[in-house]
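Hey,
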Amino acid sequence: MTPMFSRPVMFRPVRNGLAAAAKPLMLAGVLVGFCGWSIASASANQDLQEGLSRLAKAVKTSLEDEGVDAVNVGDFIAPPRLQSGSGTGLKLQIVEALKAAGVRVEATAPTQLIGRFTVREEQERDEDAFESIALRITATLLDRDDEELARLNISVFGDSALQLVGAQGSLPPTNAPREREASKREAIEAPLPTIAGNEVRTSADSPFGLEVLVTRGSGAEPRRPELEPAGDRGQRAFVRLANGDEYVVRLHNRSATEVAVTLTIDGLSMFAFSETGNFGSQVLVPPGGRVDIPGWFINDRLTDAFEVSGYAKSAAASVGVPVTDVGTITAAFYESVPGSEKDAQATARGRQIEKRYVQVKRIIKDLQAVISVRYHR
């Protein structure tokens, strides 16, 4: 096997009845309404946010050295071996970090910022006797003649890398640091998902699962996934969806504690088109419960359905995700506790559904599992 290597706002479901204009679905004889789930505001990706903040400050300093205050942000890409579809999502987060640092981001700015990212093993602290999984981001500033002005590198430790590369695996919170890093490595290098009924899990006994259902009129039918080889990277889960299919992502939590889930479609957060700016948000799933996500969050009452389309009409294409980066649904499950105040197939923005969300605060702790499902080969 070829080696792979060289911590926002939470939303919780409102359960007190259907929204007036909600279109209920009949799922296995149970009436289900898309009436809302909570969004939690915390930081599953706090490590990544802090890393991007450091990068943005370094970019600002380099721009000031050149006497400019605006930059045109281009693509951030990963090596093909990682099969990552998260480059555009990462780029959007970098843009937000630059704006927060006081950098103007303009498509017409002569100074350009491009980059690449990868996953590798590095020693996080001098006293560590082992190496940790790191997300390595290299950003390059170019002048109007495409000549290099500066090259900036940051390494982000923690769990961010796993979702960015569509890993598959469980990370028991009881693991010692060295064992946890070994679990991360296995989740990236040799993912071995399990099919349990219509769920994709990281293992047969995992409390977390992801299920895809396809709407049919007023009902929705589970679409059974299958396993297929993933080159020399173990196996991957695949669910067959056709152009025009409108689908729902069901998140399962059979654990005894609440979890916060970061859900991405084609490398984009389900909050990528939010009108309220909470792009780093997550959905809360109660202990012993499940949550149905029918589409892209727009605001606390409206959602645009997940609908499979040709690439040109997809949500991914609208924000510049390359055609090679679409076709994956990924859910990262994090431990959550109450917090204080602070032409490939791709997925389009389909019909608008009324779905209520309530914003709450949470402290997001360790990543517990990452599940990925392909729907386009």
